[in-house]
Here is the input.
Amino acid sequence: MSNNTVTAFKNTLSRELKRMVSRPIYFISTFVIMTFCYVFFLTFFNEGQPNKMPIGIVDLDNSSISRQFVRNLEATQQAKIVMRLNSHKEAREEMQRGNIYAFVEIKRNFANDAITNRRPTLTFYINDAYLIAGSLISKDITYMSAATSIGMQQKVLRAKGMDESRIKGIIQPIALDTHLIGNPWANYGTYLLNVILPGMLQLMVLLMTAFPIGVEYKQRTSREWVENANHSMFAALTGKLLPYTVIFTFLGVIGNILLYKYMHYPLNSSIGWMFLATLLLVISSQAVGVIFIGITPVLRDGVTFAGIFGTLGITFAGSTFPIEQMPMGSRIISELFPIHHYFNIYVDQALNGIAIHYSLISYVFMLAFLILPFFVFNRLKNAAISQNYPTK
Amino acid sequence: MPWHKKIISILKDILNVLKIEFKTMFKDRGVVIMFVLGPLAYPILYCSLYKNETLIDVPVAAVDCSRSPQSRELLRHMDATQNIAVTSRYSTLAEAKDAYNKKEVHGVVYIPADFSKKLSTGDQTTVSIYCDISSFMYYRIINQACTNCVLSMSNHIQLERLNANGITGESANMIASPIPYNGVILYNEGAGFASFLMPVILVIILFQTLFLGIGMIAGTSREENRFHVLVSSSVHRGGTVRVIIGKSICYFLMYAPWAFYALELIPRIFNLPHIGIAFDVMMLMIPFLLATIFFSMTVSVFIPNRETGIVIFMFMSLILVFLSGVSWPQSNINGFWKTFAWMYPSTSGVQAYVKINTTGADLRHVSFEYISLWIQTSVYFATTCWAYHWQIKKTSKKQLKAQIDTVSI
Here is the structure.
């Protein structure tokens, strides 16, 4: 790099730093918003798993057996009985009001039927409009119902004089042992925050790349910007964007530390790999941001497209709904989102802790984004000099 | 002025503001993107991405150390489910793990060597599964499919064993399942992902595009105005309230068709749940749109430029999804965030829409949200009046100062 470029870079950098302190938007969309996101998501999901969610019970039997079942249900982790209802209709209306996510119905003569071997059915209703609440509660109630059955089975078989190992073989001939790879607690916060926090970071990086560049065109200062950089587009862009690279990488690393050190979310490899991924997420998102403002050097279009892309990135990361199961073509589109590669690194390294060579390709992919800005160098430069774009 | 003339003049003023606002809206490409393209395209885009309600044939590896007819039968059952497919077989767990690391499979089923032996001796045997939990969906689907297959095979063996012990017929059934239980899923029978999340996203799309659009209009008029304030006093001599009513009617007319499209047509086109009464949804939309409009107009006073709103408030979309209390249940949101969430019309809008549209509630059942939205409408109307009044005062002050300056020169 020639001495000229270095001076141009330095000039641009000091010019940008002055601009950054001139308006509050720069401080707000870096430190304030990211801090808000960290505080919000960490306090919002601090339970990790929603516990003691409200359910109802329709106990038309009111016998010692039904009351015992209700007591057992109260001991479960995820459900809490908040109301006793007199009829199915009443319970369903409470569900429609959103006051309970599920209810268990114990029919009349339940105890009597159980004692006289008439096999009374226990029915529970789950509101899966609230899918997460519904499926967690359903798991707990199913478990409780099975446990109640098993208790009765054991009693009967023991009465028949069977020994314990035989009883075990009859009650549950095949047991299922479920292992969760990497996240032994099935903590819901882990799924969400590991993609949402970097997702927020890349959204703000995209916006804060399109904005500081676009605003030059809007305020008709773009010529001054390029001339100040000695007509080197490379110096003009790197000098302008470096402060944001530093700020967002710093904020991203804080995010990593919050997740893996403070919240103790699974980290099965060195945290350094996540730091590197965060740095690459920042610069690859900056590269994409440059493309958006380069295609149309109109500030409003640039930030709109950057914002849409950043929001979609959270979907295309692949955590909420797997990409493989999305319509054809989504897999290819997802490769265009830096956050998708970041997410793959997170899965391989932090979650699964597998050998680093599996992840190399993801790091390389993120680096490859850095080629993008070169395609719009000329366009940005010409527009900057001629200033022929609408400012609105 | 007689009262009827006064009313006519007020109506004329309002109509005038309305016309001007409509014109500015459609002349501005940025606003058209927000107000037309956004509510039109976003619902289609997200519905297409999430159109698979559940996971189909998730690839799973099998490590069958038993190699017996029974183990093969179990694997065959698993493969036959809709949700998972046994795509590869390995002789050791280490080999399967490598396939998992390469993301060729998302789960591993391990059947131990003594599987069939234990089944024949009447002992308990254990099948292990390893699930990918990079996505909650993988874990839920793989675990569920395997549990179902193991349970059905288990039940079969259970009866055989009871028969072998001389317990047959009804008494065997009695022991096998003394209290049969039956879980009934309501309102989203297939436990579908889109059916659950899309209603939330649809309401948030309406809220955010309207909010950002109004912010953009406000920022623009501020930039173009000579004194960099939101409302210029010369244009709207009719008074603050008339300006606000004129503008809000304009936004309302713009968004009422979009609300119908997003909340009534989209669920029908994409086969999302829609058992609610359309009339109730539309009744709900009146206070929802009004509260959103006045909320946005209040906040827009603080937006100095066209783009500021997008840069500063785009990130709220996702936060509003969580605050609305459907994905993370509302019962488990702590008091502080619940209060914070309540201030946003989107929260009550989402809750009430999901209840009406998805669970078939009627307006009676969502009275809390419905009343909340009307309270928000009136409170945010008041704050808008106050904020606009303040802006107009600022304009006249600046105007006065400018006049004095000109005179002194």
Observations:
- The beta strands of chain A are 53-59, 79-84, 102-106, 122-127, 174-180.
- The first strand of chain A starts at residue 53 and ends at 59.
- Residues 3-46+186-386 of chain A form one domain.
- The first helix of chain A runs from residue 3 to 20.
